[in-house]
Amino acid sequence: MALLIAATPAQASTASVAPLILIDGTWAVARLSSGQTMPTGVRAVLNLVGGRITGTTGCNSVMGRYSHGGSNLVFQGLASTRKFCAGAAGTTETLVLKSLSGAQKVAVYGPTGQKSMRISGTGGTLYLVKQK
What we know:
The chain is of the alpha+beta class. The protein has a single domain (3-130), classed as Lipocalin. The protein has three helices and nine strands, in the order E-H-H-E-E-E-E-E-H-E-E-E. A nine-stranded antiparallel sheet has the order 1-6-5-4-3-2-9-8-7. Strand 5 and strand 6 form a beta hairpin. The radius of gyration is 14 Å and the shape is globular. The relative contact order is 0.25. Residues 1-14 have low confidence and may be disordered.
């Protein structure tokens, strides 16, 4: 499955379509596509480093590759582990994976040390905060 993440010109005026160095890093999901904050005790984190994506969806691990060119970020070969996820962890995982499917847009906001990222598309929106 390939996911395309692109920023529109309208976003560029209010958000930074960051070069790869700003996208690379560890990003914790702060809010889900439903607009809700992360449930207590559930953590979803995406690590984007050197063309590889790893992380967790709230329950299972996710891994794959990504490439970056201009304002596009393309995910390739995404896979995840398959353990059963009940309750809040399962709901979170469903929303994270749904948000990452299909064509996407990305915007990076904030000064160095306080970066946040929004990934949005037909499957919903994820709001992430860069970890130190």
